[in-house]
Specification:
Blueprint (H helix, E strand, L loop, with lengths): L1 H6 L4 E2 L7 H5 L10 E2 L2 H15 L12 E5 L6 E2 L26 E4 L25 H10 L8 H11 L3 E5 L6 H14 L14 E4 L3 H15 L6 E4 L5 H8 L7 E4 L1 H9 L10 E5 L1 H4 L2 H13 L18 E6 L6 H5 L8 E5 L11 E6 L5 H17 L5 E5 L3 H13 L5 E3 L5 H4 L2 H7 L4 E4 L12 E6 L6 H8 L12 E6 L2 H16 L19
Parallel strand pairs: 6-11, 6-12, 7-9, 7-10, 8-9, 10-11, 13-18, 14-16, 14-17, 15-16, 17-18
Antiparallel strand pairs: 1-2, 3-4, 3-5, 5-13
Helix pairs in contact: 5-6, 9-11
């Protein structure tokens, strides 16, 4: 009793189940004795004191200044002046996002610079006249696009080797001016080539292969603006209309000097002997990473077999025996591109050019990630769009792209926006070709400022008026995220770009953590290794 009084309320003897005395007497010497335990309240106080001694998670923010990462929990902020090493652990703001309790958490990758990397230090790049382009072509470019004075870093690095006759693989960030980098050499090569006297079937001298009808419309419009002043005919061959429409497109007179086509439509025309590639002098695979994907690879392989690809620059000099110069451009490239192209061209004739910012988080675009429940996404989207509409009425904002992962989600979400009286356009792959035609052009012209779409609007389409991108469904791959993000902050954009991504599923969180870690360490995204290795000479 005295011992119990001395312990008082600080300890107690654990109660044992009642057993007969004979069982207690039979216990051996090794049997554990009753344990005296610390009260739970005292144990919590001790744990709290130990955590206070260790200190809370220290913030990387040493001095006030601009932030690279701004999180809801300020201790996870990272200043712009701090760069983490490759082996240094990073306190990720999204580390616990796979737990449901993390809902409503968010963080942002802030703008590290105000302008696109392709536009930095343009004064050191020079002028288009310094790249070897003909005066007639320079005059047409000046009349068609007077605002284009200095070539971007991509254009200044790609145009000279193309004019010298090299096969080129160009991988650079989205919105860096890759379209002009191959169109100008293409048109100049055709200007110096004689036109065949007789053509039994259409035989274009220049071919641009693109993965979607929307991108074909866009490239054709740019090429036609330049080519019409030079006396060159530019035509478009898009799929989705059947063989009757393909015959009608190819029967137009005069025949095309430059053809912009999708793989499916061109494959059908070649199989039906409606077109020939024997006179081809210039072949471009635009958005080559998509064209070399499994969905297009068989068609593209057949088209390359029908094209007479030059072994090297010397094969391009004979005007009466034309051989095609090969160009591949894209914002991401898979491994093994060189191995694939070695079937149609000599590896020594391939000039590979890449940007130092390839596969990196765009430093001039603010990117926000919001952890939400699936049921909260619609409410959040409607609120964001209504706020944008109010800002749009004052002329203070641009247009909006809302990306979904499936056509059914685009349609379902469209009905909800209709109920909220939010005007918008829809673009998805299951639409008939007659409905898809011109939708993106209407969006570009500003007839509607909101476009619900799938990833068919993320590849190569010019969207200089887009200010906000909303990933309603988080993209399935990091490649898709790069292409979606590339719709803002492009060369020629007059509005700052912002990306808002809704993060719902555990697999979404895994991708977000890779993006955040790459941003904190200022490195390229993992798993996007490319076969292109030569950096742009003018890239800062």
């Amino acid at each position: 009793m005295a011992v119990a009084r001395s312990l008082g309320m600080f300890a107690f003897v654990a109660r044992l189940p009642r057993v007969p005395r004979r069982d207690l007497a039979a216990r051996g010497a090794d049997e554990p004795l009753p344990v005296v335990r610390i009260p739970r309240a005292l144990q919590r106080r001790q744990e709290q004191r130990q955590s206070e001694r260790r200190g809370p998670l220290r913030s990387a923010l040493v001095r006030p200044g601009r932030l690279l990462i701004s999180a809801r929990r300020r201790e996870l902020n990272q200043p712009a002046r701090l760069t983490l090493g490759i082996w240094e652990s990073a306190p990720l703001a999204s580390r616990g996002w796979k737990n449901r309790r993390s809902v409503q958490d968010h963080f942002s990758i802030e703008r590290a610079q105000q302008e696109a990397p392709a536009l930095r230090n343009l004064s050191s790049v020079g002028y288009f006249a310094d790249l070897g382009l003909e005066p007639r072509l320079l005059q047409v470019l000046k009349e068609a696009a007077p605002e284009v004075v200095h070539p971007t870093a991509v254009q200044s690095s790609v145009i000279p080797p193309l004019l010298c006759g090299s096969h080129v693989i160009c991988a650079a960030e989205t919105g860096s001016g890759k379209t002009l980098s191959y169109l100008l050499p293409l048109l100049q090569r055709l200007l110096g080539r004689p036109i065949p006297d007789s053509r039994r079937i259409p035989a274009p001298r220049g071919l641009v292969l693109v993965p979607s009808r929307e991108l074909a419309e866009q490239v054709r419009a740019v090429a036609q603006t330049l080519g019409s002043s030079l006396g060159l005919q530019v035509r478009e061959l898009g799929g989705g209309h059947g063989m009757r429409r393909i015959r009608l497109q190819l029967s137009k007179q005069p025949p095309a000097d430059v053809l912009v086509a999708t793989p499916g439509a061109l494959w059908k025309a070649l199989k039906s002997h409606l077109i020939s590639l024997e006179q081809l002098s210039f072949l471009v695979l635009d958005e080559a990473d998509t064209l070399l994907d499994e969905s297009f690879l068989e068609l593209v392989d057949y088209i390359l077999e029908k094209s007479h690809i030059a072994e090297g620059p010397d094969d391009l000099k004979d005007p009466f025996n034309p051989k095609a110069q090969l160009v591949l451009v894209g914002a991401t490239f898979p491994e093994g591109v060189g191995q694939l192209l070695s079937k149609v061209a000599s590896p020594d004739s391939l000039t590979t050019i890449t940007s130092s910012k390839l596969h990196c988080i765009m430093p001039h675009v603010r990117q926000t990630f919001m952890r939400l429940k699936g049921a909260e996404k619609v409410t959040e989207l409607v609120q964001i769009l209504k706020q944008h509409h109010r800002a749009r009425r004052t002329g203070a904002s641009g247009t909006v792209l809302v990306f979904c992962n499936s056509s059914s989600t685009v349609n379902w979400l469209g009905y909800i926006l209709d109920d909220h009286k939010i005007q918008h356009l829809r673009l998805q792959g299951q639409m008939p070709a007659s409905m898809r035609a011109g939708i993106f052009q209407c969006f570009q012209k500003g007839s509607q400022d909101i476009l619900l779409c799938t990833d068919i609007a993320s590849r190569g389409l010019d969207s200089t008026h887009v200010e906000l991108i909303i990933n309603y469904d988080f993209p399935l791959t990091l490649q898709d995220y790069i292409h979606r993000a590339g719709r803002v902050g492009r060369v020629g954009s007059k509005v700052p770009g912002t990306i808002i991504s809704f993060v719902t599923h555990p697999w979404d969180v895994s991708l977000v953590q890779k993006i955040e870690l790459a941003a904190r360490r200022r490195r390229s995204l993992p798993g996007l290794g490319s076969s292109v290795r030569e950096p742009l000479s003018h890239q800062p």
